[in-house]
Design brief:
Helix content of chain A: 10-25%
CATH topology of chain A: Alpha-Beta Plaits
Oligomer: heterodimer
CATH class of chain B: Mainly Alpha
Strand content of chain B: under 5%
Number of helices of chain A: 9
Helix content of chain B: 55-70%
Order of helices and strands of chain B: HHHHHHHHHHHHH
Number of strands of chain B: 0
Shape of chain B: globular
CATH topology of chain B: Formate dehydrogenase/DMSO reductase fold
Largest sheet of chain B: none
Structural class of chain B: mainly alpha
Number of strands of chain A: 12
Amino acid sequence: MLATGLAAVAASLKPLFEMEDITSAQQFMQKYYKELTPEDMAKVLQRIEGEVEKEYGVRPHVRDLRPMDGVEFVYALNLSRCIGCRKCVHACVAENNQSRSPEIQYIRVLKMPHGTFDLEKGDHNYASEQVPEKGFFYMPVQCQQCHNPPCVKVCPVNATWQETDGITVIDYNWCIGCRYCEAACPYWARRFNFTKPSIPAERLNPNMSYLGNRPRSQGVMEKCHFCVQRTRAGRYPACLEVCPTGSRKFGNILDPNSEISQILRTKRVFMQLKEDIGTNPRFFYYFDV
Amino acid sequence: MITAARNYLVFLRRCARVAFVGDWRYYSWMGVLTVIILLGLNAYAKQFAHGLIVTGMSDEVSWGVYIANFTFLVGVAAAAVMMVIPVYIYDNEELHDLVIFGELLAVAAIIMCLMFVTVDLGRPDRFWHLIPGLGQMNFPASMLSWDVIVLNGYLLLNVHICGYLLYCRYQNRKPTKWFYIPFVFSAIIWAVSIHTVTAFLYVGLGGRPFWNASIVGPRFLASAFTAGPAIIILALQIIRSTTHYRITDKALLTLRGIVQVSMIINVFLLVCEVFKEFYSGNLHVASAKYLFLGLHGHHALVPWIWSAITFNLIAMVLLVLPVSRGLRYLNVACVLSIVGIWIEKGMGLVIPGFIPTPLGAIVEYTPSLNETLVCFGIWAFGLLCYTIFLRMSVPILQGRLSKANEGISEPGPNDVVAETSVTSHS
């Protein structure tokens, strides 16, 4: 009787053997990002480098880049210029080691008919070859790096938080995958790893950071982090660099002489998406006027 | 002290043994449940290995039937209070000996709730990140951390109340009032809190206009107090027919009164909601439009919600009419209410909140087979737990399983018993 029962339970648990990634003891026991001492962090980074090398055959350089003092990043996007080519989308995927199958992308470009800001009228699936089409404008949307992020408020385990430079980050080793942040985000900026992400080894970007573009595991959230692995080292985000029209502007709002400060000071019209819900984004849309 | 511990262990052992004894109906019922549980376990093992990709969920609709069932079952758990209030506050005689069945149902429902939340996690291995002290709990900011606290608290309260009263009854001694009455009253407030907090999970999201409405909380309570007692009405009749436990029709009719009033309030609140959504005609009506009428050619939920509304309306009419003083019509009304509210609270509340997405895309959701099997498995497990709880508690309440008859063989389910009124509470 008992033996039959145990055999039945064992048989029903058989699919567990199909698991590709078994959580190691160190991964299971790993402490919360903010509780890691510098020595802990050094060990963790080394372990992650080893894990990535084992899986992709490429030894990455994983750093834990911290926010810089006196820096608050802000993004601005010129809607008069954007032509909807989606180069930013693909540059982001390549830079940030996003899963190619299933596809995960941080930037969604909406093709909007002239004369409306009703997002429901936007087309998400337009063909990139024909852009820009007459009678439409294009609006890329990604994480808005809110001053008041609903995703941070709802996370039950503090796995996501806002850093001093304004970037909302995720500790991929702490996230439990409840997807409450995904429900809370008014900009549909968060993505979930519904299965183990797959990235071709030859496409892996080896320049990684802990809170940024290191490969994620199955079952955790990820999102745009203004390319922390680049921007905290003095470079522009990948989406900005690739933009052929110069629609994208990025910089330190605390520096009055930065380009971004000048834009927000001089442009007559700029706006935040869904300003009415009080999230106060660090991402602005502006027009050439 | 040692004797007390020994006695308690003997009590637990005898209870456990009773759970394995029964007639052919009991064995086949438990057998069927076990098969469904194993199918569910197998489906969950697949999900654990391959990730939530085996479900119908997506980045667009990121919660599905797991959270829908969770939401419904929190209501069922909360509704046990609807038997506690009449008994402890209004001294209702008929329900007096039956409260414990409601409380045990709450325990089973909370167990199912916790399971539904767990299977929804992408990283269940990291559950310990939620434990205060060990991990990080984002309290009080995150409504989910509140939910973890209230649900586990409610589980403990009910386990304590049921366990204590049953053990006293087993020893044939009068329960010490201060040892359970304060907990009973805490549980009353706590029951309201579990469902309110669960409603606030949704209400607190400013980016989701369909949920970000103050009526969601009251509607949760009204629908819970309809579906919960309806389930109890059906459960009590099953207990009565299988165990000879004394349950009067009058007790069932008291519960009918509760279902009746709650259903009227529930339908009224639905009317309020529909009016607000559609009359003002602003753009935030999209989700409601998708749910009730379909949006831009997508209408997966339309047949569901209209069946739910039809069921609820028929149930309301039956409950208001005197015909439902007869058990046959009362049972029809109960079944219709339960199904109607399950649809309305689950598919009708959780899914449309995600459609359209905050960026206006419409992606529909249908649960996958694997996901459905996991749900059936959890329901079967909950029913198995409730059956075992009843299998243990009924003989104790009838006095057939007691300290006095220690050492004598365990009672079967159909042993002829004198229909004595048994005092379980105070």
